[in-house]
């Protein structure tokens, strides 16, 4: 009797399981499909400045999940920190620079300035990379909306020198510090500082490399940038500029927070696609925005 009862339970269980598996294979009705909710995660791209394989600080875009300036700043710092979980998402072409185990003890915004207090691990960096780390941080964080400068603290004390060097730092760090600096100076008078953005390509990936040139040059800064984009870069790397050497800047007008440019018809000479035309415009725009501290660049055609 007990054996028969057990057999019946086994048969019923098996039959119920069979029915369940069959129902899974049936297509869902239109009504059932309508009731399914799908959630899409929107990836927010933000510019970040990070090291490439040539140890130059480069500009690329990366996904940031933060909703406000503070959370975005924290996430950027995590991405830039060696051996942080967030840095694992960096493409193989690039590498973080802030020393491992560095922690953000506090972060605050005041008058368009980010005040960041790091743990003492921030100082555990080779002197050959310490200036690049400052450039990477300042240029990345000043890409955030409304942020114009950064004050760096280490264990509650303002960072007064580039780590492991005797080179002084101003308390308020802005993009005036320059990036990937190249010096061509015969004296310290009439020093012109311009930042030019070149294109680099590796493994079918494009990104931008800014180069700040400090030189004794009395030329107009707009003209200097256009001339530099028409010639070979002054540092040895795989930098590209698609601006034709025959291009002429015919006129420009500097307005409040904007510059309007007019070029000869040869601006796009030799370019095979609209993408390359956009890269020319983007290189010019990034260079002028950084050098002149403006927000808008308009091309008059």
Tally of strands: 14
Shape annotation: globular
Low-confidence stretches: 1-7, 28-42
Span between termini: 96 Å
Percent helix: 25-40%
The string of secondary-structure elements, in order, is HHEEHEEEHEEEEEHEEEHE
Mean pLDDT score: 85
Major β-sheet annotation: 4 strands, mixed
Biggest sheet: strand arrangement: 4-5-6-7
* Residues in β-strands, percent: 25-35%
Structural class: alpha+beta
Overall radius of gyration: 27 Å
Q: How many structural units, i.e. domains?
A: 3
The helix count comes to 6
Describe the structure.
Helices cover 28% and strands 29% of the residues. It has helices at 2-25, 30-34, 69-79, 127-141, 221-229, 274-292, and strands at 44-52, 57-64, 94-95, 104-110, 113-118, 149-154, 157-158, 182-184, 191-202, 205-216, 239-240, 249-255, 258-263, 296-300. Helix 5 (221-229) runs antiparallel to helix 6 (274-292). The protein has 6 helices and 14 strands. It folds into 3 domains: 2-34; 44-177, no CATH class; 182-300, no CATH class. By secondary structure, the chain is an alpha+beta fold.
Question: Top keywords for this entry?
Answer:
301 residues, alpha+beta, 3 domains, four-stranded mixed sheet, 28% helix, globular, disordered N terminus
Secondary-structure map with pairings?
Blueprint: H1 2-25, H2 30-34, E1 44-52, E2 57-64, H3 69-79, E3 94-95, E4 104-110, E5 113-118, H4 127-141, E6 149-154, E7 157-158, E8 182-184, E9 191-202, E10 205-216, H5 221-229, E11 239-240, E12 249-255, E13 258-263, H6 274-292, E14 296-300
Parallel strand pairs: 5-6, 8-10, 13-14
Antiparallel strand pairs: 1-2, 1-3, 4-5, 6-7, 9-10, 9-11, 12-13
Helix pairs in contact: 5-6
